[in-house]
Predict the 3D structure of the following.
Amino acid sequence: ENSCPSGNIILCPDGSCVGSPSQCSSNSQNNDCNLQCYDGRCVNYYSECLSVFTASSRPAAPLSFGSEAAVASDHPHHQIALQAFVPPACPSGKYRCSDGYCVPYAQRDIQCPVVPRCPEATPYRCESGQCAASSGACASSSCPANTVACTDGTCRPKGDCPRFDGCDVNQYMCWEEQRCVFDSSQCKNNTLSYSNTFVTDPRLQQIGVCTDNCNRDMRSRLVVATIPSGATGTVPVIDDPIVGQAVRLSIPAGALNTTNSNAKYFYTVTASDSQLRSANNFVRREYFSNLGPMIPYSRTVLSAPFYCWVSANVRAITLNITITAELDRNYPHSANDICLATLDQYGNWRCLYPTVRDRRANPLSLSNGVATGSFDKCGTIGSAGTLYAFIYTPGDSDNQSNNDVFSTLQRWWPVVALGCIFFALVVVFLVYYCYRKLRYRSKYKAEVQKNKDKQIELERMKEVGAAGGNVGGKEAAQMENNPLQITIDNVNNLQNMLPSDENRKKRFEREEDVKRKRQDYINSLEEENKKLLDLVENLKGELGGGEDIGVI
């Protein structure tokens, strides 16, 4: 197991210990190279690295990456045609990097280089990996089935493309905005609206975008540092021969709590645009009118983003690690509008101190374009790393009380929500209660008025009789609850049905005439009956006389 002494804590790929990554032999050679292949060649496109290939792997570091055959020392020196192609296969479980190395598949984002962005003169990325002025300048290219064109000119399964800066294949880089589009007509140039002075509540168009020599775009390969137990360790994440240590970390003595006495390792590697362009930087609601709901990537990231890990024997980081980084200052941001941020579980930017209150309690130090912050978490090597970068996200606003209220609502929103629901239920109950009370009161008044009308009608009936009882009444008086009673209207109707005196007299005369005729008929019947009785008596008499003379 390799371990470096205090003062030279950087472990180079060849196993040597130096004070900074730039002193490693692999980084000190060919500094003028645009891109360097696995065999040391300088090329313009990574696709050229695979034109002549000999399987090899990086020297083993404490990551236990393993080793393969050494790089061939003698080989032809020529380029391949600028068309997409399937890269040469690596041994099982290995991944072919753009520069030709084979590395463990799980460590491809740590070990493999980042494909650089296309320059301003040729901002369009062809499927062959070539950069051109427009899509029309690209050579015809296609990939086999189940593969896609990658930015290094290779054809790989979807999801296996290497990391890249700038834009993906078949995309155009809008240089002024550093934005990726499919057609150059979608680009806008707002450079005339950039502000050189600080604006309290700037519009998005006033915030300048860095396009060249940006700290945001600085990249470095994997940095491995052995952290001493009794001394502070300084880890340069970015160690550029021209700019210097643009990002460096200071790890206090005893900050890494380990499970054993083995050497403690700290790893860093810079992130790429392809890993971060999809991350959203949401802003607070009070800034929507000026900035929109989110700030684009080119205006979000101000320093070189990087991932960090610790070795498996580190249990926890018990003391804060201090980060110092150079920032892009195309717009003079206030320290209140800058924070040290990471990615949350959804892949979106989040400040380590997200609320206004947290930022006040942990203010950011900003001096001469250099920001200083601290963090206490890194991933464990072999798992996902933890990303950090200084970003622009407005903090304080003019109306500070609004910020305090908003922060309070964010913290206590469940209680506020339950309170609002309870209040709404109380209001609904009160409205329903009042509605029922008013309805019952209306019905009660109607019943009282109805009873009053009935009393008035009864009084009138007593005075003028049933026919005048309802004169002037609003409705027919109806006796309730007794089916034997009749309504006043029925009484009036019956009275109207009575005949007049003349009709009644005629009717009486007709009745008398009928009675007379009936009596006459009765009298005639009685006479006939009398006659019959007399006849019967005569017959009886005659019959009685016959008996006396013996006829019968």
Remarks:
- Confidence is low (pLDDT under 50) at residues 54-81, 398-404.
- The longest helix spans residues 400-464.
- DSSP finds nine helices and 28 strands in the chain.
